[in-house]
Amino acid sequence: MISHKNDGVLNELVAGLEAWSTLAQWTPVRIFTRFLPLKNHERVSPILRSGDATLPITTVVTEAGIRYGLDFGTGYSHGLFLDQRANRAKLHALRPKRLLNTFAYTCSFSVVAGLTGAETLSVDLSRKSLDRGKQNLALNGIATAGHRFINDDALELLPRLGHRGEHFDAIVLDPPTFSRGNNGRLWQVEQHFEDLMLAALEIAAPKCAILLSTNCSKIDPASLERQARACAKIKRRTTEYTRMAGAVDFPQGHGASTTWMMVR
User: Fold this and answer.
1) Could you give the domains of the chain?
2) Alpha carbons within 13 A on the beta-carbon side of 219
3) What is the pTM of this model?
4) Which of 46, 80, 168, 216 could bond to 34 as cystine, CB 3.0-4.6 Å?
5) What values do phi and psi take at 212, rounded to 5?
6) Is 216 helix (H, G, I), strand (E, B) or coil?
7) Rg (alpha carbons) of the chain, rounded to whole number
8) Residues 167-222 pLDDT 10s
């Protein structure tokens, strides 16, 4: 899958893939391309650029020994965000006991945590995405016991979790740039991410690791850290921050901006 914002970048990425494939003596079976527009309503499904069009539109891929199902026929998002690869590896190394995975999509972080023995709670507005998440757990031989899936608005759910006395030692906050929540409530990451951080800090256990991530081009890792520091000050929590290096296969300016907030 090659994601691009314009034809110039697409041509550069295609040329880079061809050069690397020649060097590695490896040929991809299929290549899909996906246009990344500025506005959600301009999104289009991935396009098959090369390869056998008669092959099934679904497949299973492996990353660091972990299996994930992909479906190129579901629309804009095929099932696994490669720019979160390093963050999945970090979560695996953290070996949390209880993970809250908000905006969970197909639950890749929940799969990673589940394989280390964690209990997980995956939250998403899309029931279909959560169903795909359950399939990903099954692909890796993870029983459903200890793993919850809630079809709900994360910003509304987090306070309820706090009222029930639930706490987590790892929390994933990777919201969309723009969406509509329950009852048509508008979500814009530039305006509401701090609300999400504040709610997460209320249910963060001591030594909790919180992943802050966004694809909004107006928010870089430094901005994420400034927002997080302001929220931690409000909640009187001591925090430290770790920024992950950008993936080598993503050009500068592409991929999610991420920062880990380590709560003490």
Assistant:
1) 2-55 (no CATH), 82-263 (3.40.50.150)
2) 25
3) 0.90
4) 46
5) -105, 125
6) coil
7) 19
8) 999 999 999 998 887 777 788 999 999 999 999 999 999 999 999 999 898 999 99
